[in-house]
């Protein structure tokens, strides 16, 4: 049960971080120092994003029984690919939706 909450929490954490990155991208800057600060902010939001992207395959591996054989490799591999696809597709759709809104 804890593994399920870990999986749901990592998905929600990924969504939250993506929204924070999109909102940080909207910041208008006019000086080089503010541009550097914006880039540092985006890099700092990337750290929890990578953490959540790595946590999703681990949570799925735990949910499926912690297999140490070849099937565990497939579970982690395909869930890692799914995590990357989910993250980039959600970022793309949220970014486009945000651009249309204003």
Notes on the protein architecture:
The N and C termini lie far apart (41 Å). The longest helix has 32 residues, at 32-63. The protein has one domain (2-101). The mean pLDDT is 93. With 102 residues, it is mostly helical. The protein contains three helices and no strands.
Could you give the topology of this structure?
Blueprint: H1 2-25, H2 32-63, H3 70-101
Task: Briefly say what this structure is.
The protein has 102 residues and is mainly α. The chain has one domain (2-101).
What descriptors fit this protein?
single chain, 102 residues, mainly alpha, 0% strand
Which structural category fits the helices and strands? mainly alpha
End-to-end separation in angstroms reads 41 Å
What proportion of the residues is helical, as a percent range? over 70%
Overall 3D shape? elongated
Mean pLDDT: 93
The domain count comes to 1
- What proportion strand? under 5%
Radius of gyration: 17 Å
Q: Characterize the biggest β-sheet.
A: none
Query: What count of helical segments does DSSP give?
Result: 3
Instruction: List low-pLDDT spans.
Output: none
The arrangement of helices and strands along the chain is HHH
Number of strands: 0
């Amino acid at each position: 049960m804890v593994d399920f909450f870990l999986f749901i929490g990592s998905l929600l954490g990924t969504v939250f971080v993506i929204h924070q990155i999109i909102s940080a991208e909207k910041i208008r800057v006019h000086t080089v120092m503010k541009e550097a600060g914006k880039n540092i902010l985006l890099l700092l939001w990337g750290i929890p994003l990578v953490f959540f992207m790595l946590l999703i395959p681990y949570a799925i591996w735990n949910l499926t029984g912690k297999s140490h054989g070849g099937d565990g490799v497939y579970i982690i591999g395909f869930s890692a690919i799914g995590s990357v696809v989910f993250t980039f597709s959600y970022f793309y759709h949220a970014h486009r939706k945000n651009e249309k809104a204003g």
